[in-house]
From TrEMBL:
DNA-binding region, residues: 29-48
Pfam families cross-referenced by the UniProt entry: TetR_C_24, TetR_N
HTH tetR-type domain ranges (all copies): 6-66
Name this protein carries in UniProt: HTH tetR-type domain-containing protein
InterPro entries for this protein: Homeodomain-like_sf, HTH-type_TetR-like_transc_reg, HTH_TetR, KstR2_TetR_C, Tet_transcr_reg_TetR-rel_C_sf
Alphabetized GO MF terms: DNA-binding transcription factor activity; transcription cis-regulatory region binding
Keywords: DNA-binding, Transcription, Transcription regulation
Organism: Micromonospora maris
PROSITE patterns: HTH_TETR_2
Gene3D superfamilies: Homeodomain-like, Tetracycline Repressor, domain 2
Length: 196
Protein backbone atom coordinates (compact mmCIF):
# COMPACT_ATOMS: atom_id res chain seq x y z
CA UNK A 1 0.00 0.00 0.00
CA UNK A 2 1.36 3.41 -0.97
CA UNK A 3 1.99 6.14 1.57
CA UNK A 4 0.38 9.55 1.26
CA UNK A 5 3.73 10.94 0.12
CA UNK A 6 3.94 8.30 -2.62
CA UNK A 7 0.37 9.11 -3.68
CA UNK A 8 1.25 12.81 -3.91
CA UNK A 9 4.36 12.07 -5.95
CA UNK A 10 2.36 9.84 -8.30
CA UNK A 11 -0.24 12.62 -8.69
CA UNK A 12 2.53 15.10 -9.54
CA UNK A 13 3.95 12.76 -12.18
CA UNK A 14 0.57 12.07 -13.80
CA UNK A 15 -0.58 15.69 -13.87
CA UNK A 16 2.80 16.94 -15.08
CA UNK A 17 2.97 14.29 -17.83
CA UNK A 18 -0.45 15.41 -19.06
CA UNK A 19 0.65 19.06 -19.15
CA UNK A 20 4.01 18.32 -20.80
CA UNK A 21 2.31 16.12 -23.40
CA UNK A 22 -0.23 18.83 -24.28
CA UNK A 23 1.88 21.98 -23.96
CA UNK A 24 5.48 20.80 -24.08
CA UNK A 25 8.07 21.01 -21.34
CA UNK A 26 9.09 24.59 -22.11
CA UNK A 27 5.47 25.62 -22.63
CA UNK A 28 4.49 24.58 -19.10
CA UNK A 29 5.23 26.95 -16.25
CA UNK A 30 5.63 26.19 -12.58
CA UNK A 31 2.38 27.99 -11.74
CA UNK A 32 0.49 25.62 -14.06
CA UNK A 33 2.15 22.60 -12.48
CA UNK A 34 1.30 23.81 -8.98
CA UNK A 35 -2.30 24.49 -9.99
CA UNK A 36 -2.66 21.06 -11.63
CA UNK A 37 -1.44 19.16 -8.58
CA UNK A 38 -2.96 21.45 -5.95
CA UNK A 39 0.26 22.19 -4.11
CA UNK A 40 2.18 25.25 -3.03
CA UNK A 41 5.76 25.71 -4.23
CA UNK A 42 7.27 24.33 -1.01
CA UNK A 43 5.09 21.22 -1.10
CA UNK A 44 5.91 20.63 -4.74
CA UNK A 45 9.66 20.88 -4.20
CA UNK A 46 9.39 18.62 -1.16
CA UNK A 47 8.55 15.81 -3.60
CA UNK A 48 10.45 16.93 -6.73
CA UNK A 49 13.96 18.42 -6.72
CA UNK A 50 13.63 20.28 -10.02
CA UNK A 51 11.52 20.57 -13.14
CA UNK A 52 14.14 18.68 -15.16
CA UNK A 53 14.21 15.88 -12.59
CA UNK A 54 10.43 15.72 -12.93
CA UNK A 55 10.74 15.40 -16.71
CA UNK A 56 13.31 12.63 -16.39
CA UNK A 57 11.17 10.70 -13.93
CA UNK A 58 8.14 10.99 -16.22
CA UNK A 59 10.22 9.53 -19.04
CA UNK A 60 11.84 6.76 -16.97
CA UNK A 61 8.62 5.52 -15.38
CA UNK A 62 7.01 3.88 -18.44
CA UNK A 63 10.23 2.36 -19.76
CA UNK A 64 11.13 0.96 -16.32
CA UNK A 65 7.70 -0.68 -16.06
CA UNK A 66 7.91 -2.23 -19.53
CA UNK A 67 11.37 -3.58 -18.79
CA UNK A 68 9.82 -5.58 -15.94
CA UNK A 69 6.87 -6.85 -17.97
CA UNK A 70 9.04 -7.77 -20.97
CA UNK A 71 11.39 -9.72 -18.69
CA UNK A 72 8.37 -11.72 -17.52
CA UNK A 73 7.43 -12.48 -21.15
CA UNK A 74 10.95 -13.63 -22.00
CA UNK A 75 10.98 -15.89 -18.94
CA UNK A 76 8.02 -17.93 -20.23
CA UNK A 77 8.36 -21.24 -22.08
CA UNK A 78 6.47 -20.05 -25.16
CA UNK A 79 7.90 -20.16 -28.65
CA UNK A 80 9.39 -17.04 -30.25
CA UNK A 81 6.25 -16.30 -32.25
CA UNK A 82 4.14 -16.28 -29.08
CA UNK A 83 6.70 -14.13 -27.25
CA UNK A 84 6.84 -11.67 -30.15
CA UNK A 85 3.08 -11.29 -30.14
CA UNK A 86 3.12 -10.88 -26.34
CA UNK A 87 5.82 -8.19 -26.54
CA UNK A 88 3.68 -6.28 -29.05
CA UNK A 89 0.53 -6.61 -26.96
CA UNK A 90 2.43 -5.58 -23.84
CA UNK A 91 3.87 -2.50 -25.55
CA UNK A 92 0.45 -1.52 -26.92
CA UNK A 93 -1.09 -1.91 -23.46
CA UNK A 94 1.69 0.18 -21.93
CA UNK A 95 1.16 2.94 -24.49
CA UNK A 96 -2.58 2.95 -23.89
CA UNK A 97 -2.22 2.99 -20.11
CA UNK A 98 0.24 5.89 -19.97
CA UNK A 99 0.08 7.71 -23.30
CA UNK A 100 0.97 11.11 -21.84
CA UNK A 101 4.26 9.82 -20.42
CA UNK A 102 5.10 8.02 -23.69
CA UNK A 103 4.31 11.22 -25.60
CA UNK A 104 6.74 13.10 -23.36
CA UNK A 105 9.25 10.27 -23.88
CA UNK A 106 8.99 10.83 -27.63
CA UNK A 107 8.92 14.62 -27.80
CA UNK A 108 11.02 15.96 -24.93
CA UNK A 109 14.19 13.83 -24.97
CA UNK A 110 16.28 16.72 -26.33
CA UNK A 111 15.49 18.82 -23.24
CA UNK A 112 17.35 16.46 -20.90
CA UNK A 113 20.92 17.03 -19.80
CA UNK A 114 23.67 14.56 -20.65
CA UNK A 115 23.07 12.34 -17.62
CA UNK A 116 19.34 12.15 -18.21
CA UNK A 117 19.82 11.34 -21.89
CA UNK A 118 22.28 8.59 -20.98
CA UNK A 119 19.76 7.02 -18.59
CA UNK A 120 17.00 7.07 -21.21
CA UNK A 121 19.25 5.66 -23.93
CA UNK A 122 20.48 2.88 -21.65
CA UNK A 123 16.95 1.74 -20.77
CA UNK A 124 15.77 2.08 -24.35
CA UNK A 125 18.67 -0.14 -25.43
CA UNK A 126 17.84 -2.68 -22.72
CA UNK A 127 14.23 -2.80 -23.87
CA UNK A 128 15.07 -3.17 -27.56
CA UNK A 129 17.50 -5.95 -26.63
CA UNK A 130 14.47 -7.95 -25.41
CA UNK A 131 12.97 -7.70 -28.90
CA UNK A 132 16.31 -8.60 -30.49
CA UNK A 133 16.58 -11.65 -28.25
CA UNK A 134 13.16 -12.92 -29.34
CA UNK A 135 13.88 -12.23 -33.01
CA UNK A 136 17.18 -14.10 -32.74
CA UNK A 137 15.48 -17.03 -30.98
CA UNK A 138 12.85 -17.17 -33.71
CA UNK A 139 15.42 -17.05 -36.51
CA UNK A 140 17.47 -19.80 -34.87
CA UNK A 141 14.34 -21.96 -34.43
CA UNK A 142 13.27 -21.43 -38.03
CA UNK A 143 10.18 -19.42 -37.05
CA UNK A 144 11.41 -16.05 -38.33
CA UNK A 145 13.27 -14.96 -41.42
CA UNK A 146 16.81 -13.73 -40.68
CA UNK A 147 16.64 -10.00 -40.04
CA UNK A 148 19.11 -7.20 -39.63
CA UNK A 149 18.51 -6.60 -35.93
CA UNK A 150 18.87 -2.86 -36.51
CA UNK A 151 15.25 -3.23 -37.70
CA UNK A 152 14.23 -3.38 -34.04
CA UNK A 153 15.01 0.32 -33.70
CA UNK A 154 11.93 1.06 -35.78
CA UNK A 155 9.54 -1.11 -33.75
CA UNK A 156 9.42 1.17 -30.72
CA UNK A 157 9.02 4.17 -33.01
CA UNK A 158 6.21 2.43 -34.90
CA UNK A 159 4.27 1.93 -31.69
CA UNK A 160 4.98 5.36 -30.21
CA UNK A 161 4.20 7.31 -33.38
CA UNK A 162 1.05 5.30 -34.04
CA UNK A 163 -0.31 5.82 -30.54
CA UNK A 164 0.73 9.47 -30.21
CA UNK A 165 -0.69 10.54 -33.57
CA UNK A 166 -3.77 8.29 -33.71
CA UNK A 167 -7.18 9.78 -33.18
CA UNK A 168 -8.40 9.41 -29.62
CA UNK A 169 -11.50 7.61 -30.91
CA UNK A 170 -9.43 4.63 -32.12
CA UNK A 171 -9.44 1.89 -29.46
CA UNK A 172 -5.91 1.00 -28.27
CA UNK A 173 -6.51 -2.69 -28.95
CA UNK A 174 -7.26 -1.84 -32.58
CA UNK A 175 -4.04 0.15 -32.89
CA UNK A 176 -1.99 -2.71 -31.44
CA UNK A 177 -3.73 -5.24 -33.67
CA UNK A 178 -3.05 -3.12 -36.76
CA UNK A 179 0.65 -2.77 -35.91
CA UNK A 180 1.04 -6.50 -35.27
CA UNK A 181 -0.77 -7.31 -38.52
CA UNK A 182 2.03 -5.46 -40.28
CA UNK A 183 4.90 -6.82 -38.18
CA UNK A 184 4.07 -10.52 -37.88
CA UNK A 185 3.75 -11.40 -41.60
CA UNK A 186 6.95 -9.51 -42.33
CA UNK A 187 8.89 -11.43 -39.68
CA UNK A 188 7.41 -14.94 -39.60
CA UNK A 189 8.47 -17.56 -42.15
CA UNK A 190 5.15 -19.42 -41.86
CA UNK A 191 1.65 -17.94 -41.96
CA UNK A 192 0.54 -16.78 -38.55
CA UNK A 193 -3.18 -16.49 -37.74
CA UNK A 194 -3.96 -12.86 -37.07
CA UNK A 195 -6.04 -11.93 -34.00
CA UNK A 196 -9.44 -10.51 -34.81
Amino acid sequence: MRTRSEDTRARILTASADLFARQGYHGTGLAELLDAVGLQKGGFYHHIASKEELLLEIMLDPIDRILVSSDQILATDGDATTKLRQLGTDLGNAMAADLAAWTVFLREYSVLGADGKAQILQRRQQYLDRWRQVLQEGATAGEFRPLDLAFVEGILGLFIYTFVWARASTPPEELTRSIMQVLMPGICLHPVPQPR
